């Protein structure tokens, strides 16, 4: 059985995927997670999740069929606007 | 801190304990690379290393009284000067069920021994035992989870029965009934310290080979 391990490096930080491990049950998975991701005080907390419980979404892209690129950050040409603003302020 | 030297018996106990940890760590390390699966390979190797680390700390403590250093106590003595229990010397590599049986019996015995040493009048020893206990907690958890998994398995049960008299020999006579109770077995005649199991000579030969190759070298 494959388990995915997520680790938190410091309190308040987001959990990040650390890696995966093979273990026959939850007890073994806990022991091995501690061994691989906790022994050297590199994590303050660990999450372990059976790989089967992780649902993968193959196609997370929602197509933009209409021209509404103002919804996206990259819809604005910030570079140009910034340059114009700096020119006006005389700081360029 | 006591100003006077610790009693000779306490130093003997520490040395025998160090020998147990060194030799068991050495035996367990024979599994590195060949354990049943990769995760266990890493975990068991790490436990083996933990035992050797404990041996080092105990040898250092003994060396403070006896002279020399941890290395000279660990590697420069003759085979008959080692006081480890024959239990830890048995070559079990290749037999996972027996290895786990020994691991579980040893860790259970060790918990009793360490708890007693934490009460020692020799303050450095009591402190060291408390420090070791924190790491042994992981060893005990690992041993227990494997015991639970193999419990009822014919090979594992046979190994526990065969190793039981050896396991008793790790502890002093007064501590043995606690071990019997903890593992659910009847106390029997123990295989005592003082003689070595078959295979110890070869183990000692290999363990000390590099040190002996250049006597007195500073590494």
Q: Give the integer mean of the pLDDT values of chain A.
A: 88
User: What is the first-to-last residue Cα distance of chain B?
Assistant: 33 Å
Largest sheet: number of strands, sense, barrel closure of chain B: none
CATH C-level class of chain B: Mainly Alpha
CATH level-four homologous superfamily name of chain B:
Ferritin, core subunit, four-helix bundle
The greatest inter-chain interface is formed by:
A-B, 13 and 13 residues
Q: Give the overall silhouette of chain A.
A: elongated
- Coarse structural class of chain B: mainly alpha
Query: Shape of chain B from CA axes?
Result: globular
Give the ordered list of helices and strands of chain A.
EEHEH
Counting DSSP E segments of at least 2 residues, the number of strands of chain A comes to 3
Number of helices of chain A: 2
Q: What oligomeric state do these chains adopt?
A: heterodimer
Q: Taking all residues together, what is the mean pLDDT of chain B?
A: 95
Protein traits:
heterodimer, A: 92 residues, alpha+beta, Ubiquitin-like (UB roll), three-stranded antiparallel beta sheet, 2 helices, 3 strands, B: 219 residues, mainly alpha, Ferritin, 67% helix, 0% strand, globular
Describe the structure.
The complex is a heterodimer of chains A (92) and B (219). Helices cover 26% and strands 22% of the residues of chain A. With 92 residues, chain A is an alpha+beta fold. Chain A has a domain at 2-53: Phenylacetic acid degradation B (Ubiquitin-like (UB roll)). A three-stranded antiparallel β-sheet of chain A has the order 2-1-3, covered by helices on one side. The longest helix of chain A is centred in the middle third of the chain and has 12 residues, at 26-37. Chain A is elongated, with a radius of gyration of 23 Å. Chain A starts with a strand and ends with a helix. With 219 residues, chain B is an all-alpha fold. Chain B has one domain (8-213): Ferritin (Up-down Bundle). Helices cover 67% and strands 0% of the residues of chain B. The longest helix of chain B is centred in the first third of the chain and has 29 residues, at 38-66. In chain B, 37% of the residues are buried. The model of chain B has no long low-confidence stretch (mean pLDDT 95). The interface between A and B is medium-sized, with 13 and 13 residues.
């Amino acid at each position: 059985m494959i388990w995915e391990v997520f680790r938190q490096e410091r309190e308040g930080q987001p959990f990040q995927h650390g890696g995966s491990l093979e273990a026959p049950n939850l007890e073994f998975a806990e022991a091995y997670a501690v061994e691989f991701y906790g022994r050297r005080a590199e994590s303050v907390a660990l999450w372990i999740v059976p790989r089967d419980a992780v649902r993968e979404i193959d196609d997370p892209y929602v197509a933009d069929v209409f021209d509404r690129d103002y919804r996206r950050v990259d819809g604005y040409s910030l570079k140009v606007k910034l340059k114009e603003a700096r020119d006006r302020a005389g700081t360029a | 801190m006591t100003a006077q030297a610790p009693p000779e018996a306490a130093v003997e106990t520490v040395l025998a304990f160090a020998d147990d940890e060194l030799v068991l760590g050495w035996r367990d390390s024979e599994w590195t690379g060949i354990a049943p699966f990769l995760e266990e390979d890493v975990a068991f190797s790490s436990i083996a290393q933990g035992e050797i680390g404990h041996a080092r700390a105990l040898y250092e403590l003994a060396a403070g009284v006896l002279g020399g250093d941890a290395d000279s106590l660990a590697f420069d003595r003759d085979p008959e000067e080692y006081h480890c229990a024959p239990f830890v010397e048995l070559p079990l590599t290749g037999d996972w069920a027996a290895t786990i049986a020994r691991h579980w019996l040893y860790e259970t015995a060790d918990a009793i021994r360490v708890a007693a040493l934490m009460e020692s009048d020799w303050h450095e020893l009591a402190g060291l035992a408390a420090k070791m206990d924190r790491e042994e907690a992981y060893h005990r958890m690992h041993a227990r989870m494997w015991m639970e998994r193999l419990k009822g398995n014919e090979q594992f049960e046979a190994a526990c029965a065969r190793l039981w008299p050896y396991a008793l020999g790790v502890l002093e006579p007064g501590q043995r009934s606690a071990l019997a109770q903890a593992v659910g077995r009847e106390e029997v005649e123990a295989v005592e310290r003082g003689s070595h199991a078959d295979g110890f000579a070869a183990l000692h030969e290999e363990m000390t080979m590099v040190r002996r190759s250049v006597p007195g070298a500073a590494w």
